[in-house]
């Protein structure tokens, strides 16, 4: 048996005529079509119902076993409407008094109603799909539905509409710029905005910013010390950069134009203390979080000592280049930095190995 299914996904039939769905049988479907046409002659679902009756008459005249029914969804659309159609198809199939295998011919009025095809196919094999549209509006509803789906997708809106909007703004903004005798500045700024947007989309900078913001939010609510340490470290780095630039200016003022090595040494000499403080702050914050999470290992404690050792060496070398330190001071600082790194490494390695051996002995006992 062939079952002709007239699909009305948004339930125009039930809402406008009061008919109880599903509507099963030729006479009932024709009566529903007439009622809907009387209530709203412009509704495209009228064509679907009459097309179902027309196909039924053609196949029945050829002696084929055929039945026609109208099934509807609801105004909510999407998943809820598809489920409603699926339930009504089950009702129609249960009402058929036949021992034959049932297949379906689905009749719709456009692409939107055809979104329910997978739901129907899961219940009955589909022999074909026939879309009924008014000849004067061929493909108009499909174009409308496609545009509606595109505009409803946030990803597509951001990818297509924003660049188009910026391009359309170039001409009116150029007119505004011409009034103030700045057309080049306006056009250049608009083009720069478009370029920055395309680059950010290409590099997925928006997703990375969202991920960083989400990580910061989780750290804030999880009580992680690292977040505070990073904020303090950023402030220290900024102060270090400012102090380093001041040192470069002082050297240039006292000795004239300083060459690149001397300027670099002056910048390091002025900034190294602040940078070292930032490094110690972040390492201590990380160590605190690892301890709270019970993941702390002894070798993690080397980090602040390494930062201090590196800072001592860089401070001494930069001071020596600026003639602010003697050779003996340089040698002492280099030795002290090396010894500090070695001693911290050995001390924490020994402590970790001793504690590990103690734990194995307790387990063995």
Automatic annotation (TrEMBL):
Keywords, sorted A to Z: Membrane, Transmembrane, Transmembrane helix
A Pfam family hit: DUF373
InterPro entries: DUF373
Superkingdom of source: Archaea
Transmembrane segments: 180-200, 221-242, 262-282, 303-322, 328-351
Protein name: DUF373 family protein
Origin species: Saliphagus infecundisoli
